[in-house]
Amino acid sequence: MEKIAVYTLRPAQDADEALLLEIYASTRADELALVPWDAAQKQAFLQMQFSAQQKHYRAYFPHATHEMIESEGQLVGRLYVDRRETDIRILDVTLFPETRGKGIGTLIINNLIKEAAEANKSLSVYVESFNRSLGLFQRLGFVKTEESGASWLMEWRAGS
Fold it and tell me: pLDDT at position 116, please?
């Protein structure tokens, strides 16, 4: 019998900073494997990029929720969402590599779809065209509405 994915969300706290950096670092691991930097240089780069990303989210999306994703008592990722008047924007949904493919991401997105449908809002997310999560969003009914370089704005609308 296949196990059903479950998760809980809790607000990110200052004490989560190191975990958030670790989650962020997991998204850059493949890229950093290609550069000839030592561990200290890679860590400095990751810290700089993570800090810049956090400042950007707080400056441009000051009302967004920043939540930690937990499953079976373990931290498995992060979810940042900006709820606007007519749209719910997923700023970031990241799961640790070892927890991907277990249905948690699908469940999170489906719950956001349900929230958007009940509020008569669209649900949107920017996804890089080469990101493996693009297929997930397409399977769940998101369509590309904008393209900016390698980033696509994917949108779900009720009835689509």
Answer: 97
